[in-house]
UniProtKB/TrEMBL annotation:
UniProt keyword annotations, A-Z: Acyltransferase, Pyridoxal phosphate, Transferase
A Pfam family the protein falls into: Aminotran_1_2
A GO term for molecular function: acyltransferase activity
Gene3D superfamilies listed in its UniProt record: Aspartate Aminotransferase, domain 1, Type I PLP-dependent aspartate aminotransferase-like (Major domain)
InterPro entries named among the record's database cross-references: Aminotrans_II_pyridoxalP_BS, Aminotransferase_I/II_large, AON_synthase_class-II, PyrdxlP-dep_Trfase, PyrdxlP-dep_Trfase_major, PyrdxlP-dep_Trfase_small
Organism: Fervidicoccus fontis (strain DSM 19380 / JCM 18336 / VKM B-2539 / Kam940)
Protein name: Pyridoxal phosphate-dependent acyltransferase, putative
């Protein structure tokens, strides 16, 4: 048991979180996740996962995982750097390079571990990181672990980025520009074509976290492919935990860079890897996304997202700058965002309220993540519930 004063201290802090409405009420899944799921014993239409291509419960991924466990066992035994890794990981890393259209690839146990491990290996004292204002928390933590100086540029503001590049030019050993490809709270897209042009002009390195772009944009290849700048991005970071329906993170780049990361990233060197089953499922997911079937799933995904976004707007909701299947309903009030999410859940629709500190105060919202597996009936039922509760709660 903790000392009494320690328990009291954190009990008080927990109470403050509850009073501010910033406590996460995490619900229990009671089966696989998909367009429909059983949550807390209730059947719901699922809008709270990043399972964009409906692969998380795909039979082929499950079968690949089972076969790998039968062949390689369940656990890796130790960190890869010490005990070695199963040959299937080499296959996955070759497929990552093919997917990212780079010379080489590396797999990390999680997307978070990818950013907090890779970013500090690329920069050091005397370097500068220019980071988008709305970059993901894992990027922010990776920057904090580095010894580089950091400057934040206004969200997707190319003019502000250029101004900061101009002022920094010649003052640092190297400059690293980091941006999400698709931003996880607003669903808008980084202007990678303009960013890559500026990077060439100022001889800066570009690092793109494409966790929410892979399987969504560029016929599934991601945000750099969407803009046709694959070859202009120095570091392609991504994750298997969103559209690819599995878990783990990845980086694609030149062979020398990948091997340097492998030998210096602490979150790779000091982390025991996942089960061989997860690695096999990731390999199968990439095969599907890179196939013609994958392109068709992407097409259905955008058809669903465009319909859902347009109808939400016609009802009177504010969907912000979303251009992707990540669609916020911006409410601007913590209490009403939570009330709306609860009312929708009671009606069989699972969405997540997103409040401060995840988003700035005044932009509280529900976050809706559309899937290729949602039917028009699913979308229409959800839209009807949004309209009903939006009016009852005085949001629209």
């Amino acid at each position: 048991m903790a000392k009494g004063w320690v328990k009291d201290l954190y009990g008080k802090r927990l109470k403050e979180l509850l009073e501010r409405g910033e406590y996460w009420e995490i619900k229990k899944l009671m089966g696989p996740t998909g367009p429909h799921a059983i949550v807390e014993g209730k059947e719901v239409i699922m809008f709270a996962t990043n399972n964009y291509l409906n692969l998380a419960n795909d039979q082929r991924l499950k079968q690949a995982a089972v076969e790998a466990i039968e062949k390689y066992g369940w656990g890796p035994g130790a960190v890869w750097a010490i005990a070695g890794f199963h040959e299937i990981l080499s296959e996955l890393e070759k497929k990552i390079a093919e997917f990212k259209r780079t010379e080489a690839g590396i797999f990390f146990p999680t997307g978070y571990a990818t950013n907090v491990g890779t970013i500090p290996t690329l920069v050091e004292t005397g370097d500068l990181i220019l980071s988008d204002q709305l970059n993901h928390g894992s990027i922010i933590d990776g920057i904090r672990l580095s010894r580089a100086e950091k400057i934040v540029y206004n969200h997707c503001d190319v003019a502000d980025l250029e101004d900061k590049l101009r002022k920094a030019h010649g003052k640092y050993n190297k400059i690293l520009i980091i941006t999400d490809g698709v931003f996880s709270m607003d669903g808008d897209i980084a202007p990678l074509k303009d960013i890559s042009k500026l990077a060439e002009e100022y001889n800066a390195i570009v690092y793109v976290d494409d966790a929410h772009g892979e399987g969504v944009l560029g016929e599934g290849r991601g945000t750099p492919a969407h803009f046709g700048v694959d070859d202009k991005i120095d570091i392609h970071m991504g994750t298997f935990s969103k559209a690819l329906g599995s878990s783990g993170g990845m980086v694609g780049s030149d062979r020398e860079i990948i091997e340097y990361v492998r030998n210096t990233a602490r979150s790779w060197l000091l982390s025991t890897g996942p089960s061989p089953g997860a690695i096999a499922a990731n390999l199968k997911a990439l095969e599907i996304v890179m196939s013609q079937e994958g392109k068709e799933r992407v097409r259905r995904l955008h058809e669903n997202a465009n319909y859902f976004r347009k109808e939400l707007q016609s009802i009177g909701f504010n969907t912000g700058k979303s251009e992707t299947p990540m669609i916020p309903v911006i409410i601007g009030d913590t209490k009403k965002a939570r009330e709306l999410a609860k009312a929708l859940f009671d009606d069989g629709i699972f969405v997540v309220p997103i409040v401060y500190p995840m988003v700035p105060r005044g932009t509280e919202r529900t976050r809706n993540e559309v899937s290729a597996g949602h039917t028009r009936e699913d979308l229409d039922k959800t839209l009807a519930a949004y309209e009903k509760w939006g009016k009852k709660l005085g949001i629209i």
